[in-house]
């Protein structure tokens, strides 16, 4: 690359054009940065290597290099001609109906840092982008986050900034979503906008035509939030609670605050929807979190849910009263709730509206009559060695054991009454569903403490089953070949 900036521009005029190029705008800006005489040789080499085909980087990775290299500071030294042309072409492109490329958001960051565009113009451009109506890639969400972080420094924060932040937020525990959540928290702490964001619809759910956003400040908006939750994703969150760096689970750090506000006293809440959406169970599982602040909000949410449930006309009112009485007796607000206890209660909640479920009677009877919890797996003896409906009860308790394994300290509960040994001995079962459930439990155990499974000789048992299965397949194949021939 030439050390002379003007020579580089003359030799590469395409760098200043907004037509669809083979290079993204982040890469164009990298080229401009490399060519600038003020850049150090070491940084120039780093940036130039990033553009080589053999080490092609994503826009997200390039953005990280730009940030680490202090690129936005160097943008201030770029020629005025570049800034003016970039600004004009950007506005022209936004005016095109076919516009669908969000890479230019990096240029917006540069223009703001160069003070070539003010916040008012920035608002117009963001409004033109119509981000809330787009399905965005991770790179695009990163670009938007960079812009919103700059917008958040404005003295009087634009009302749309938090809403735009929610539109790129998927409420997962991924690294990018956690960064967006930091921005949302900052916006909430610096303004009183949180209540204006009800019903806290995030991501692509904001595109739903069934949502009347003109009524989001009314008391019945909790239904909108609950109905837009992904049920499968919520169930996965409950079963894998506390999982980090995962795009497929909900982040408690955001969800618990939204839920707490949505079940406040003056809100109209459908108790059955609270249960069927998994929201009630989610609040119970949140009591297992190490963060005392989040636990306290989860507890307040449960008390509010209790008030809504009490005034609802249940066919079995005593069951609700017994459930909360039992829960309150075993709670120690200063300590996280044991995983086994939390899973037990979350499962009981799930069955409350399903009186025809095969496990309803036994589970509800335990809620009413159980005196307390020990360190063992609740109801293990009664379920694993049940005389009636043995297969289904065994499946229930094995799946329960898998769900209660959230952290390494939970493993000790499996040793009481030799629960783990009894379950592993059933690996030789002929019941395919039970075998798969036990394998799922083993897989979860390996994630938490692989040494335990090696010590128990589980791998040898599985290998022996595989060998036997292969032998059976070979015999079946010989029989089929003999018949065909």
TrEMBL record:
GO terms for biological process: maturation of 5.8S rRNA from tricistronic rRNA transcript (SSU-rRNA, 5.8S rRNA, LSU-rRNA); maturation of LSU-rRNA from tricistronic rRNA transcript (SSU-rRNA, 5.8S rRNA, LSU-rRNA). Residues 280-449 form the URB1 C-terminal domain. Pfam families: NopRA1. GO terms for cellular component: nucleolus. PANTHER family: NUCLEOLAR PRE-RIBOSOMAL-ASSOCIATED PROTEIN 1, NUCLEOLAR PRERIBOSOMAL-ASSOCIATED PROTEIN 1. This is URB1 C-terminal domain-containing protein. It comes from Oikopleura dioica.
């Amino acid at each position: 690359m030439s050390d002379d900036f003007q020579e580089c521009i003359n030799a590469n005029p395409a760098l200043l054009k907004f037509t669809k190029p083979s290079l993204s705008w982040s890469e164009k800006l990298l080229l401009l940065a490399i060519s600038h005489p003020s850049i150090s040789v070491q940084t120039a080499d780093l940036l130039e290597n990033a553009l080589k085909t053999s080490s092609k980087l994503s826009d997200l990775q390039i953005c990280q290099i730009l940030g680490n290299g202090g690129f936005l500071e160097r943008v201030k030294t770029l020629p005025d001609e570049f800034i003016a042309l970039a600004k004009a072409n950007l506005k022209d492109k936004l005016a095109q109906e076919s516009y669908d490329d969000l890479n230019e958001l990096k240029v917006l960051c540069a223009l703001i840092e160069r003070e070539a565009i003010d916040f008012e113009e920035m608002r117009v451009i963001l409004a033109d982008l119509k981000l809330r109506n787009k399905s965005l890639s991770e790179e695009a969400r990163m670009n938007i986050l960079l812009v919103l972080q700059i917008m958040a420094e404005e003295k009087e924060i634009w009302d749309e900034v938090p809403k735009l932040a929610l539109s790129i937020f998927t409420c997962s525990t991924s690294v990018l979503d956690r960064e967006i959540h930091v921005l949302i928290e900052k916006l909430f702490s610096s303004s009183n906008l949180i209540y204006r964001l009800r019903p806290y619809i995030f991501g692509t759910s904001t595109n739903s035509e069934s949502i009347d956003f003109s009524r989001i400040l009314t008391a019945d908006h909790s239904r909108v939030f609950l109905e837009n939750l992904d049920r499968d994703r919520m169930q996965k969150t409950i079963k894998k609670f506390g999982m980090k760096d995962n795009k497929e689970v909900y982040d408690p750090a955001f969800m618990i605050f939204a839920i707490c506000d949505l079940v406040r006293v003056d809100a109209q809440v459908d108790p059955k929807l609270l249960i069927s959406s998994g929201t009630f169970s989610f609040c119970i599982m949140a009591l297992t979190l190490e963060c005392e602040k989040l636990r306290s909000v989860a507890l307040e949410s449960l008390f509010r849910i209790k008030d809504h449930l009490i005034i609802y006309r249940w066919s079995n009112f005593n069951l609700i009263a017994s459930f909360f009485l039992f829960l309150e007796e075993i709670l120690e607000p200063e300590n996280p709730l044991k995983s086994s206890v939390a899973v037990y209660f979350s499962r009981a909640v799930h069955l409350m509206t399903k009186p025809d479920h095969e496990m309803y009677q036994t589970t509800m009877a335990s809620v009413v009559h159980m005196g307390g919890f020990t360190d063992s797996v609740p109801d293990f003896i009664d379920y694993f060695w049940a005389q009636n409906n043995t297969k289904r009860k065994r499946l229930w308790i094995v799946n329960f054991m898998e769900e209660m394994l959230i952290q390494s300290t939970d493993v000790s509960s499996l040793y009481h009454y030799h629960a783990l040994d009894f379950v592993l001995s059933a690996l030789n079962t002929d019941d395919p569903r039970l075998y798969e459930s036990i394998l799922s439990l083993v897989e979860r155990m390996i994630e938490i403490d692989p040494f335990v499974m090696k010590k128990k000789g589980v791998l040898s048992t599985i290998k022996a089953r595989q060998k036997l299965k292969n032998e059976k397949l070979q015999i079946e194949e010989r029989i089929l070949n003999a018949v065909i021939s």
